[in-house]
Amino acid sequence: MKVLIREKMPDGIKVQLEDWSENGQMKWCVGAYPVSKADSKYKWIRRGERFRLSLYFENKAQAEVAFDLLVTGKQALINCSAHFYNGIKDLYYLIGEEHHEKN
Predict the structure, then answer these.
(1) What is the pLDDT at residue 96?
(2) What is the number of structural domains in the chain?
(3) pTM (two decimals)
(4) In this structure, is residue 80 part of a structural domain?
């Protein structure tokens, strides 16, 4: 994996554009490090601490557009949930328990 660019979003969240082509699976990723609003079941992710949020894309152009939108503040991480590696599980850490749908 190669980090191509490192920046910060307007709210201070660190983001980086990554090339995973050497990996052979997912090729383009935006890695973000927001603060979690909820604990994970086994406490790998803890409320109030930064965690890695991976957004995967089909190609470099899509990843670059998403990265630029995040860095300029034109898009929030929550709006990129279709690209989250762990889908709704990752969304849970962004929105917290008080907003999570109870079963």
Answers:
(1) 86
(2) 1
(3) 0.87
(4) yes
